[in-house]
Every structure is written in C-alpha cells, then in structure tokens.
Amino acid sequence: MKRLVAVIATLLLVSSAFAIDDGVRFDDPEMQARYEKLISEVRCLQCQNQSIKDSNVSLAADLRREIARMITEGQTDEDIAEFLVVRYGEFALYSPRKTGKTLILWLVPFLLVLFGGYALMRVLKHRMSLPMDSDTEQ
C-alpha cells in the first residue's frame, strides 16, 4: 500500500514538473525584456485571472511560444497585440487599447460623478430656499 501511494505521489509530482514552462530565453536582453513584458500583459484565456506568464495551461504555453516566434520574426508589440485582439478579442489584453469603445468606459464614471454633484447642488439649493418651520406655535 505504501508503495502504491509513493508511486502515485511520484507520478503526480513528475506530471506537474512537465507542465511548468521555463519560458523562452533570448540571447538579446532587450528582446527577453520585451518578451517578459508582453507575456505579463496578456490574459490567460482559460484561467482568466492570470497572465499567460503565470499560467501553466497548454493554451498559455502555446501563446507564449507564438509571442516568442513573432518577436523573433521582428514584429512590433502593436502587431502582436493586434494579432491577439483579432484572434481572441480585447479581453485577451489586461489593459485594453484606447479606442472609441473603451473611451466611453473611461468617461462614463466621470460624467456620472459630475451629474451626481450637479443634482446634489440643485437639491441643496432648493432646500435652502424653503421657509423654515417655526417652533413658536406650540
């Protein structure tokens, strides 16, 4: 029985060791820094709460290899981001690009605060103009 438990534990540990991707290593430190930055800014589409840098699922490993290939081919960060957005949507990027759609999402909270402040000022101004009740009629 102890041997069976030891064999199962060993198999589990070995399988998790194979799942760990040690990442691509570029000879050029600038390319390596670019690669590390890019994979930390791309969301794991399967995990959804991790970057592909931190994820061990096969889709994240595939995306890391694809990004490394694109960097090696000389594509820019914008080209890589465009590829990811076309293929997986804006959700793939942790910080969405500033476009017309996302501009609305950035502006609406500020507009709501301004509207709320204006409404509060109107209510207070209206209440200040009301006559005060006198307590002398008791």
Task: Give structural notes.
- With 138 residues, the protein is mainly α.
- The protein folds into two domains: 2-97, Cytochrome C biogenesis protein (Helicase, Ruva Protein, domain 3); 98-130.
- 64% of the residues lie in helices and 0% in strands.
- It contains five helices and no strands.
- It has helices spanning 2-19, 29-41, 58-72, 77-88, 100-129.
- Helix 2 (29-41) packs antiparallel against helix 3.
- The longest helix has 30 residues, at 100-129.
- It is elongated, with a radius of gyration of 28 Å.
- The N and C termini lie far apart (91 Å).
- The mean pLDDT is 85.
CATH class of the largest domain: Mainly Alpha
Helix content percent band: 55-70%
Q: Distance N terminus to C terminus?
A: 91 Å
The run of helices and strands is HHHHH
Instruction: Determine the structural class based on helices, strands and strand pairing.
Output: mainly alpha
Query: Unreliable segments (pLDDT under 50, ≥5 consecutive)?
Result: none
Shape: elongated
Largest sheet: none
Examine the coordinates and then state which fold CATH places here, giving the name of the CATH topology of the largest domain. Answer: Helicase, Ruva Protein, domain 3
What's the count of strands?
0
Number of domains: 2
Fraction of residues in β-strands? under 5%
Q: Report the mean per-residue pLDDT as an integer.
A: 85
Give me the number of helical elements.
5
CATH architecture of the largest domain: Orthogonal Bundle
